[in-house]
Amino acid sequence: MAILLPRSVLVVGSGGREHALVRSLLASPAKPRVVCSPGNAGIAQDVPCLAVAADDVAGLVTLARREKIEFVVVGPEVPLSLGLSDQLIAAGIPVYGPKADGARLEASKVFTKQILLKHGIPTASAGIFSAVAPALDYLKGKSAPIVIKADGLAAGKGVIVAQTMAEAEAAVRDMLAGNKFGTAGSQILIEDCLHGEETSLLVVVSGRDYVMLPVAQDHKRIGDGDTGPNTGGMGAYSPAEVVTPDLLERIEREIVRPSVNAIAAEGIDFRGTLFIGLMLTPAGPSVIEYNTRFGDPETQVVLPRLKTDLLALLWAAARGELGGMKLEIKSDYALCVVIAAKGYPDAYPKGDVINFPSASSLPPQAFIYHAGTAKNPAGQIITNGGRVLGVTALAPTLRAAADRAYAACGQIQCASKYFRRDIGARQLTRS
Ligand code: AMP
Ligand code: GLY
Fold it and tell me: Hey, which of 105, 222, 298 would you mutate to test ligand 2's pocket, going by the most ligand atoms within 8 Å of its Cβ?
């Protein structure tokens, strides 16, 4: 199929996900010019980084015009929910990433729950509240554990899996009366707790067409053995073999196809990534949430496994030409260990110098993706965020991928370096 591919691409964002997107787009046989805004110190080693912030919608549109960008790929959720894609489309610039109406599927958990329930897609049952008294009343008929969710975007912090009813009541009051998450918490969901293993399914969607990317598993807690507070994600691997081919077929039949159809039926022309967070419960797979962007760190293990040209895939989705596209996936396993700054997800230091191994001393098939990094005036790379690096390796077995990734982690020196030692353990101990 001869598709004319764009010659210049702007990637919006500054995390490990965006670094992985940049690397995969650079690897396209079409050899596009790739730029990133705002990027980070590692992305800047690969492509030019421009200084417009990811939430500066007008600035990004101006930048795309000035740089004669033919295609924009949006990483994070905030610009999507602010209407970046709407504005780019209005300016005649094709974009991968949904318009604000589609981004609502991540930006409003209430909106999504209503769609899931209306279309009979498996999900935990839930009540929706905007006042304390009825919410507390509803809790009287429930038992712990129970989940309290702020409606809006809260940087991954708006979900409390309460282990006691006292904790649940406190979360309700914090959100609805205490303004803990501002307007994001002015509506809440009180949701039954699902039990099982979580997996992440990234689906490239274009209207009613879709392509499922390989399943990944994230590690959300900060500590080994899934202990401590939730984070943005401390590591991932793919494929997640807990999803057998039969289970994947069921997930596609009961969840993916109905979700894509439901979104289209709601009048949303969704062109971007639908990231379906799944709980594999004893009763079957159930939707925990939708995100409307690539996952981080899931992207760092999914993209390196693609044989298919990422540029062609995302361009086809943006252009409404995804129908019939088939993915080619490497048989290799991928595993990513996130290096964070000690203290994350609470307070952590910034500005620590990072020393990297030379490219030739890294294990084979190991890649270092940058997230929270910057350069100091002396030109050294320093820590500049909670999640600092994503160290990914590919190998013929998950064990070998883990060994390679951890060997590379050991070669990186930084005073505040912290990482989990058990990424992949669930699958490694199962097999
Ligand atoms: P979310 O922001 O919706 O992804 O929620 C963050 C995390 O909270 C999820 O990754 C799950 O680990 C957990 N969670 C959310 N909803 C539920 C639920 N209904 N039952 C159990 N855990 C949940
Ligand atoms: N790793 C989970 C997320 O990107 O939301």
Answer: 298
Ligand 2 geometric centre to CA of 271 (Å): 19
pTM, whole model, 2 decimals? Answer: 0.96
Q: Provide the pLDDT for residue 156.
A: 66
Ligand 2 atom closest to the CA of 295, numbered from 1? 4
State how far the Cα of 13 lies from the Cα of 134, in Å rounded to an integer.
40
Rounded to whole angstroms, how far apart are CA atoms 179 and 182? 5
Please state whether 235 falls in left (phi above 0), alpha (psi between -120 and 50) or beta.
Answer: left
State which residues of the chain have pLDDT below 70: 1-3, 156, 185, 431
The finding on whether 288 has its CB within 6 A of some atom of ligand 1 is yes
Domains, the chain, in order of start with CATH, read 8-99 (3.40.50.20), 131-186 (3.30.1490.20), 195-318 (3.30.470.20), 333-430 (3.90.600.10)
How high is the pLDDT of residue 324?
Answer: 84
pLDDT at 431: 62
pLDDT for residue 153: 80
Cβ 91 vs Cβ 68: under 8 Å: no
